[in-house]
């Protein structure tokens, strides 16, 4: 029992793609038994008791079950080969082939004993289940044209052994037609399943590549921003430092002035670097809302978003509300079995109000789970003069999270800070910082080295 539970846990912990792969394969292994079991029982019921027919019927059912069981590793390897994986079939084709020949010989013997009368129909349906796994394995590893030719030839050859067993021509024709039908049916089931698995794995690989490309693109963008922010400042700092060293003995006052400029530019660089890093850490409200809808929809929760004023909010307000959306979505997934979740953003009486409400609250649990997430949100909102409230919603088993942020003061301060930051960056790019004084009594060689340091 413990091994079964461990297997179930391992299956649940696998990715969705692996689960789809597993379910598809298991379905292909199970389908033949829906033919084998009922038709086997019917065959045993209809087989005459005299002449050894009942014994041959039992033997035929046993060989059919053996084909279905030993064919599972063969079909699994055929799926892997179809998906482009390098696998070895080993001796499984030989084992299944020998069992198939034994099954065919037993079927012919049974038909001969009972003079081709009562059990031919049951044997045909039984053959559909027996042939599914080996025929499906074959259709996965050969081209469709080769499989079609093999199906026609196999159907014709399969009818030949039944002629001496007393099967009339109409019965032989039926055997050939049923064989072709079995091959077409197996191809439509097994090969299409393999094709679907290939598409699923290709999509999964494409998503992985897309994620890696997104990370690489983000690294390039971050590196580009770092270069734009620090590149010029570091070049000017190097130039002024070199100039201050040369002026130290000739004009200490000018050297001190240059080092003061170096200190100021270093502080500006430090501030701009913090702005860049903070910009990458800040959350975006629109992105978080779209992400919340995708995550909740994937979890089976209908997510309704009413975002009227999101684009009009200051950057600081959008950032803190984005964190509220992120934490609220996490709480819905972690502490509720929600079927419906709504997120509403409004501007009312000089403040922004974000309301997140969901149903499916589990008995005996708080919406926030008692963790530090909501406490952290309250700290973020407090810095902007905002508040956060949580509690039961409007219906039974619902939970509501409400964040309020004053808009007027926050928006004014944010706009002023943004304008000041823009002016500072414009000055830095335009080179309006304190000019570099001309060196006093600098030789031509010194000037050449100074220019080279700025290149």
Overview of this structure, please?
- The chain crosses the membrane at residues 22-43, 55-75, 87-110, 122-141, 146-163, 169-190.
- With 455 residues, the protein is an alpha+beta fold.
- The protein folds into three domains: 14-208, no CATH class; 216-281 and 414-454; 285-406, 2-Layer Sandwich (Heat Shock Protein 90).
- 71% of the residues lie in helices and 8% in strands.
- The protein is built from 13 helices and five strands.
Characteristic key phrases:
3 domains; alpha+beta; 455 residues; five-stranded mixed β-sheet; disordered C terminus; 5 strands; 71% helix; Heat Shock Protein 90
Write down the overall mean pLDDT: 79
Order of helices and strands: HHHHHHHHHEHEEHEEHH
Radius of gyration: 38 Å
Cα separation of the termini: 74 Å
Pfam family, one: HisKA_3
Transmembrane segments: 22-43, 55-75, 87-110, 122-141, 146-163, 169-190
Keywords: Kinase, Membrane, Transferase, Transmembrane, Transmembrane helix, Two-component regulatory system
Biased composition (Low complexity): 429-448
What's the short story on this structure?
By secondary structure, the protein is of the alpha+beta class. It is 71% helix and 8% strand. Helix 2 (16-46) packs antiparallel against helix 5 (120-141), helix 4 (92-113) packs antiparallel against helix 5 (120-141) and helix 10 (315-335) packs antiparallel against helix 11 (373-382).
